[in-house]
Amino acid sequence: MIERYTLPEMGRIWSQEHKYELWCRVETLVLEAHASAGTVPADAVGPVRAAPPPTPEAVAAAEAVTDHDVIAFLTAWADNTVPRSALAMTLTEATDLLITRATALVAALREHGLAHRGTVRAGRTHGIHAEPDVWGHRVADFAFAVARCRDRLRHAREAVAVGKLSGPVGTYSNIDPAIEARVLPELGLRPAEVATQVVFRDGIAEWVSVLAMLATACEAIALEVRHGQRTEVRELAEAFSAGQKGSSAMPHKRNPIRSERICGLARVVRGYVTPVMEGMALWHERDISHSSVERVALPDAAIATDYLLHLTTGLITGLRVDAARMRANLDSTGGLIYTSSVLLDLVAAGMSREDAYALVQAAAAASWDTGASFREALRKEASAAGQELDEARLDEVFRPERYVERLGPVFTRLSDLV
User: What pLDDT does 80 receive?
Assistant: First the structure.
């Protein structure tokens, strides 16, 4: 991943320096276990433990000769045990950071949603006004979605926290299973139930798939903001700092650039799901068709998702909500947003559903075509049909707050979300 989208902590986890640190840690623990078992001299451990990890430059120089990264590492470090579990350690470290970031986003969404539990707006389906809603309800949906993805990530962490120290094809031909059983828990891993030269890639495929879901949840949030910041809507706006410029040519512009960046990078993360999943199908006990993919896909997916979570949290904490504009937009169709409740109310008053639907639809069409308020058009259509409307009842039907009165339990659940 390019430096522009790499946050320092996640970048460090996927750095070459940290990779060799983990490889050295695996090597040292394996050697210590062998020494305890009496299969290598005890005095061999001290020099290995004291040896610093090789530099990326030293490994690269060795690899230019060997054309094999692990042998190059061993040559640069002068050891003789091949590490196979460091990737799992990297994945668990990256996952722990992603879980922390996702939890911070859940908290930001929770607080924002609770703050706007009474901010009335038009609910929309297909981009068209549907029924009155509150902004906090929409945000609560996002909060629970991100929380579910975060919880899936916790499960995926267990799927990738698996290692193997079982020999070239997993048969323990040159290592006692007791070594594996001792070393891997010290690395925060559990032994694979069975392995060949590698651990089967279904756990890694699950992990990347969950990252894609998490990234897409961020995209859903950003997409809502992008719509809300359109000139014709103007209900939401990203934070716009002093000195910030939206366009080199049009000084008035305030573009939803953070939201657009989130939507774009989510596509990048999703794009890694298929190539990583295809690494599940390898020739026999192993080939390396998966390796080249994972070298790119795993750090990129983790770094991009980390950045997306960071960016989305900042988007929510700095989001500007124009409650007055939300209400004005709700009222902009002259009451058409209340058609479903008017229909039900007329049926409850004794009108057949067919007649009530025809009456409401005709009034709605007249309102759309003439610009008259829906309520005035409804009066005219009812009068022409010989129907009398209960104006006091309509006052209640046309009150947007009544549509969200039963959302209390949703916000109670939101307040308990962690």
Answer: 39
